[in-house]
Amino acid sequence: MTEFGLRLAISLTQIAAVMGIVVITVLILTLAERKVLGWMQDRMGPMEVGPYGILQPFADAIKLFFKEDIIPAGANKFLFTVAPILCLIPAFIGFAVIPWGPNQTFEINGITVRPFVISDINIGILYILAFASLGAYGIILGGWASNSKYSLLGGLRSAAQIISYELNIGLSIVGVLILSGSLSLVKITDAQAGGFWNWYLFALPAPQIFAFVVYVISSVAETNRVPFDLPEAESELVAGFFTEYSGLRFAFFFLAEYANMVLVSCVAAALFLGGWNAPYPGTIMTLIGLPSLAWVENIMWFAVKTYSFLFLFFWLRATLPRLRYDQLMRFGWKVMLPIALGNIVVTSLAVFFYQQMK
Amino acid sequence: MSQLFFGYFAGMIALTSMLVVALRNPVYSALSLLVMFFHVAGLFITLHAEFLAAVQIIVYAGAILVLYLFVVMILNVKQDDRYHSQWRIAGFVCVPLLIESIVLLSGGAGATDPGSRSLQSEPHDAITTDNTLAIGKILFSTYLFPFEVASLVLLVAMIGAIVLAKRDIGGNDT
To answer: A142, A218, A297: which is closest to B69 by C-alpha?
Structure first.
C-alpha cells in the first residue's frame, strides 16, 4: 500500500508541476501577446503595471477574480455554470501525454519514475485529439445557455468550424503516424532523434511539409484564433459565445483558449519538429562532459520550439484580416482536406517503396 | 476491481441512456448521451481496447453528437412536448438491462474462476501486442472485403443525402 501511495504522490507531483508550468506559460502568453502586437503595430503595449508592464497578467487576474459574477436573466443556470469548466478541462487534460524531455527513468524505492512525461499511453495522440474535440462542447453550451442571440450564433459557428478543421488535423498527422508506426508521442519523438534531418518535417522518404502547413492552419482554426476567430468576431457578434460571461467564468474561457494554444504548439513540436531533440546529433552537454545535465538542453529545445510556434499565433493575429464564413468553410473542405488526403497517399506510397528497396 | 469498474460503467450507461429519452430538455438529452459515450469508452478501456475507446470519443462524442447538438439548438426555438413523456418506454427498455447487469454481476461471483482465468490469459496477448496494430492488421487482411463494402455503403448514403438536400435547394431557386 505504501508503494501505491508513493506512486500516487509522484503522479500528483508530476501533474501539479505540469499544470503549474502551463498556467505560468498562459500568464506569460497574455503579456507576450499584447507586447508583440504592440511592437508590430509600432506601439509600446502595456507599460503601466510594474517595470515595463511585466506585472500586467497579475493585474488582469486580480481584476477578473474580483469582478461581479453575473448570470443573465433567462439563462440556463446549470449549463451556464458548467460550460466554462467543460471548456477548461479538455484543454488541460491533453498535457498528460506530452513528453517534455528525454525518455529517461530513475528509481525511487524500487518504483520506476519517468520524470518528463506524466503518462506514456500507446494511443497518446488519439487521446489528445479525443479531448480536443470535447472542448467544442463548452463553447456550444456556453453560447446556448447564455440566452443571447450573439452567444448562440457564436456557439453554432464554433461547432461547425471545429468539426471541419478537426478532421484536417486528424488527417494531417496520419503521415507522421505512417512514418513512425506508433501512436505514442514518446515513441514518435524518440524516432526523430539525431539531427534536424530526422525530424518528420524533413525526414526521408516522405517529408511532411504539406502536412505541417495543413496542421498549422487547422490548429489556428481549431483554437479560434485570428484569422479564424469567427466564433468571437467582435465586429459581428460582440464577443461571440462568451458575450454574457464575466469575472471568473470569463477567465476560464480565456485560460482554456490559451491552454489550447500551448497544447497544439506542443503537439506540433512533438510530431513535426522532433520534440525535445536538438537540431544536431546528441547534445552539447554530453560533449562538454556533463551527460547527466543533457535533459536541461533537451527541455530547452522543446520550449524553444513551442514558443516559436506560439509566436506564430501572435504574428498571424497582427498580420491577417478575418475570413468570411463561407470562405472559411470552402477553404477547410476544398483546399485543406484534399491536401491532407493527398499527403496520406504520397506518404504511404513513399514508405512502401522505401521498404521494398531496402 | 475490474468487476467494480464494470458495474459502475454498465450502471451509468443504463442510467444515462434512460435519461436520453426521459429528459424534457433535448439539450440535456444530448448531454446525457455524451456521458453515455464516455462510459462506453470506459468499458472499452477495461477490455484493453484503447484504440476503440479513443475512436469512440473522437467519432461519436467529438463529431456526431456535436452535429446533433447543433440541430437541437436550431430547432429548439419552440418547445415541442409531443415526444417528451417517454418515461415508461425508457424504463421498459432500461430496467431489464439494469437487472440483467446486476444478475450478471452477482452471478459472476459463482463463476469467478473461469472468468478470472480467461481474464488472466487474454491480457497476455492484448497488452504485449499493440492493440491498434492488431486491429489494423485484422481490418486490412481478414475483414478487408466487409470493410471496403461498409465504406461503399457509407459513401452511397452520403451521396444520397447530398442529392436530397441539393434537390430541395434547386427547387427553391427555379
So the answer is: A142
Mutate to test the interface with A, among B73, B77, B128 (most CBs of A within 10 A): B73
Burial (CB count <10 Å: 0-12, 13-18, 19+), residue A213: middle
> B62–A136: do the CB atoms touch at under 8 Å?
yes
Task: Fill in the DSSP letter of residue A322.
Answer: P
Task: Give A315→chain B minimum CA distance, Å.
Answer: 30
For chain A, what's the residue count? 358
Q: Given CA atoms B156, B158, B160, B162 in this order, what sign does their dihedral have?
A: negative
Region A100-123 average pLDDT = 76
Measured between beta carbons, which residues in chain A are less than 8 angstroms from residue B70? 140, 156, 159-160
Q: Do B130 and A122 touch (CB under 8 A)?
A: yes
DSSP-derived 3-state class of residue B130: coil
The whole-angstrom distance between B107's CA and the closest CA on chain A is 30
Q: Which residue of B has its CA nearest to A143?
A: B73
d(CA B104, CA B101): 5
B30 touches chain A (CB under 8 A): no
ipTM of the complex: 0.77
Using alpha carbons only, what angle is made at residue A122 by residues A134 and A203, rounded to the nearest 5 degrees? 95
pLDDT at B1 over 70: yes
Coil/strand/helix, residue A108 = strand
> Which band of pLDDT confidence, cut at 50, 70 and 90, is reported for residue B156?
very high
The single residue listed with the C-alpha cell 454481476 is: B105
CB atoms within 10 A of CB B116: 13
What are A12-47's pLDDT values in tens digits? 888 888 888 888 888 888 888 888 888 888 888 788
| Whole-number pLDDT of residue A177 | 87
Query: How far, CA to CA in Å, does A280 sit from each of A179, A274, B25?
Result: 20, 11, 58
Q: What is d(CA A24, CA A13) in angstroms, rounded to the nearest whole number? A: 16
What's the CATH number of domain B2-129, 3.40.50.970, 1.20.120.1200, 1.10.1020.10, 3.40.50.2300? 1.20.120.1200
Strands (E), chain A: 106-108, 111-113
- Total number of residues shown for chain B: 174
3-state secondary structure of A229: coil
Closest A-chain CA to B59: A130
Mark yes or no for CB contact A137/B131 under 8 Å: no
pLDDT of A205 higher than 70: yes
